[in-house]
Task: structure prediction
Amino acid sequence: MIAKKLNEGGDIAGTPNDFSESEVGGYNLRLYVAGQTPKSLAAISNLKKLCEGHLAGRYTIDVVDLLVTPQLAAGDQIVALPTLVRRLPPPLKRVIGDLSNTERVLVGLDIRPKTGSPT
Amino acid sequence: MATKHKKADHSANSNHLVPLRKTPTGIKGLDALTLGGLPMGRPTLLCGSAGCGKTLFAMTFLVNGVNKFDEPGVLMSFEERARDLETNVASLGYDVAELVERKQLVIDHVYIERAEIEESGEYDLEGLFVRLGYAIDSIGAKRVVLDTIEALFAGLDDTAILRSELRRLFAWLKDKGVTAIITGERGDGQLTRYGIEEYVSDCVILLDNRVEDQVTTRRLRVVKYRGSSHGTNEYPFLIDEHGISVLPITSAELTHRISHESVPTGVPDLDDMLGIHGYFRGSSILISGLAGTGKSTFASAFVNAACERGERCLYFAFEESPDQIVRNMASVGLKLDQHIESGLLDFQAARPSLYGFEMHLARMNRDIEEFAPQVIVVDPISAFRGPSSEIHSTLIRLADICKSKGITALFTSLSSSGEQMTESERSVSSLMDTWISLKDTEANGERNRVLYLLKSRGMNHSKQLREYELTNHGIHMVDAYIGPDAVLTGTARIAQEAREREADLSRKQATERRRREVARKRAALDRQIAELRAALETEEAEMATLIEQEEAREIAHGSDRSKMAAKRGMRS
Result:
């Protein structure tokens, strides 16, 4: 349900990516959540805002609800929720939490280098 | 929903005062000392320092669950990858990959690398719950192992979140109704490094691996077990190619069933010395003696006789290799090799220094369980060196195990020269039902062997010192010479016997001489009497003749006088 609402990249939640947009050097992000908890909803809206602000047009997001597809949890080594996984470009990156700290997310996704001064 | 159902079950159970149900681990001994196993449907904390065998223990719990109790299991490993785990437990003979294939076991390796994770804002461990829940539901698991969940603390920063989530996890596991083992690394001053024993408090088992005198002993202790009594001591346990076995509790009460049946000793002459013509079945026998007195030979004779009756024997050799024993015993006419071939006899040889006493005991216990012998031999107990209290407790337990199983146990012990008992002898003497002491006597430039029964409970027995010989047909007894001054054996005995025979002969000759003398005297006297009697008779005969003549003369004289008177009267 969440997936449908937020179908930014055109992917359906829980299905593997077809990497269609990755070839242009875009970001393929997957957000794992479990149900519509306040944390999940916060993470989703935070992610949306952040991507629009920094990666406009260069990203796809699919949201995986582990309550629907729990078998996907092991594959991406999900322990904490919500977890944002940067599947492309490599290497794999993870950010956990409700993504409320934008700086940490940008660092975690390598959008902004760790050494860069945050403002 | 399934969870709710389980819950309802639980409360229904407690209403009817049903005691805590338990999940057997299938680990020999552990189920005995926890009186049935781990608390069913509850988490158990298994802690210990590195190298204690926590993972193997947990894995055994899962594999036994599948193989013995038909309960599928989930292993969530936070440290080792599934493939490494499979390799590691293959040494115990577990084919984990096959179980995974049969969908009876799920291994999920949870990998957390702090460097790869950025934390931003609030999170929880729901992902772990989802994974675990999915794994449990996918195979209907009843058993869960989390090994070692404390790895999470190394991977994630926010310990406050971790702690509250772990608390929730353990509560959730209980709700799921799975029996779980959570392993934890031993920490300073507490059971686990991050103090998770706070959250898992139903059952705590501590594993320990101590080195004393360069000998390692693995020990296990049930620190607590809510809602159940349990053995509280430290128990040695053993990990080897046969899996894990814990030495069970010493039977505190002496209630084992006893037998009135006798078992021949294998030495017919020795049988005759014992009131029931053998040892009691299920009793403990100690054969002590100096070097070279034939302790092993007596033991082997016993084993040989038992095998010939078709009984199973287990021979624990601590000083000689099995081949050596077999070869040596062939020289006294005991063919042990045929019994090994027929599978009735098994040797277990190990150097005493290989493990600590406790480990030896655990191993022996395991071997006894597996081989199910009627007779065991421990040759010799004196090979165990160490504090007497430890030897004592080890042997007490071994004797107990044997008695409880009705196994006749024969122990040999090497005495030190001199009269003092060795440490091991003194400590076990009171445990033994029959004690045979073998001795060497040295005199006249030769050694001879003598034997006596120090004690034999519950039967009359010979109190005599007996000399015995090890011949190529076995052991034979000879009556020893017990004189007023000393016990003589060997040639001294033979010489003494010859002397005695001589003395006996001369005594007999003297008597005979005396008897002949008397007879001769009697004959002489008889002759004298006869002579006297004859003389008397002669005299009497003469007397009679005289009297006759006198009478005749009287008559003649009388007639003459009357003739004369008539003549005078007629004239006057």
About this structure: Residues 2-11+24-108 of chain A form a domain with the Glutaredoxin fold (CATH 3.40.30.10). Residues 1-23 of chain A have pLDDT under 50 and may be disordered.
